[in-house]
Amino acid sequence: MKDENLFDPAAQEAERLEVNRLIASIDTAKLEEYASSLRNGIKSKIPALQYDRTKRSSVMGGMNYHIEIRFDDAVVWLARIRRFNSTSPPPLLRDYIIRSEVATLKFLERTAVPAPKVYGYALATDDTNNVGTGYILMEKMTGRSFNKSKSSNTQLRKVVLQLSDIYVELSKYPFQLMGSLDHPGTTHVGSFARESLTDVNGPKTTAIGPCSSFEEFYTASIQLTLDLIIRREMYAEQAIDAYLIHRFLLDDVLPRISIRSSQEPQFFLKHPDDKGDHILVDDDYNITGIIDWEWSYTAPVELAFNSPIMLLPVARFYNGEQSICEEEEYFASCLKSKGTEQLAKAVKAGRIQHFFSFCCGYDLGDWTGFLGLFQGLRDAAGIDEDIAWDQWRMKALRRYESDEGLQFVLHSFDET
């Protein structure tokens, strides 16, 4: 997916300044020295760092900048460094996100999931860190990012079949809480390691989780959104609509889709950004690695193992259609053939989970996309499915006319 910011000259210049500041803060000699110490003194070299927008996709994503560390014996590592700018979270939260990613990758080393091996890391706030920034030293995996749009149906199915093996592998490792791994070398689950799930209110930082249920998690998450709307930190341009939408998600939809089990709840590791470019493949479309585990969390079966975003039929999905597509049907059949009926069911019945998760915190600047998703969610949940947006909005305004939060928003925001 193209980054629209690349076509904005002001955004390009801001990014150039940001990355150059980051590069200037890195003591590459100290990083080389530390990397070499981890390989019994084999010398390493970091190529001269400079911002080059033409190579952007190969070294930088939305949240991280990557540096190659080349050893004299031809081994190559990556230093994964978190970007920071005016919108970045406080240093302690950035460090927590790094530590959680390390904990996740360390856990994955115990499994058959092909993920990068971690060799070392340091947090920005560590007194012993003399590199100038937080970082993770990790394996540079072979392969290139999978691109569904440039793949044939045969190639896609080969990747999907292998992905089903990875889902089955992850299903072997249950956790008792919903949250993020937070202590490298352990399976301890702590609060969610993600900016959008953390309330940064002045000097006070409060992260959601860990949670004992799907309902507890989404109650806290949606309530945080409502609080941020009231504080003018989210949806300032469309606060009334956003408030009504999220009240409805919390009060009406969540109880309908809450996942309740007669057994002790179990949660499983979920990749947070499964659009497809997190999968590395070789020229024969064999999966060589699964990367970008930042923001990973544990989730119930229905959420952890529903269709990856890369398989969603984009036009139909944003039009609110509930049926899953042929690729998802194939994915479900792969899971079923491996004896994991519960995982196959999560795919086949997972559309409502997608609609719900997309609607929570959705960017209302894409109003057409939102209306389709919102209609699809109401259809799937069987709530107000027969009325259009304008009618639904008037109904919601009447329903919440005595809600203190809505009254505050109505009287505090100048909306037309």
Automatic annotation (TrEMBL):
Domain Aminoglycoside phosphotransferase: 98-296
Coiled coil regions in record: none
PANTHER family listed in its UniProt record: AMINOGLYCOSIDE PHOSPHOTRANSFERASE DOMAIN-CONTAINING PROTEIN, AMINOGLYCOSIDE PHOSPHOTRANSFERASE-RELATED-RELATED
Protein name (Swiss-Prot/TrEMBL): Aminoglycoside phosphotransferase domain-containing protein
The species this protein was found in: Acrodontium crateriforme
Taxonomic path: Eukaryota, Fungi, Dikarya, Ascomycota, Pezizomycotina
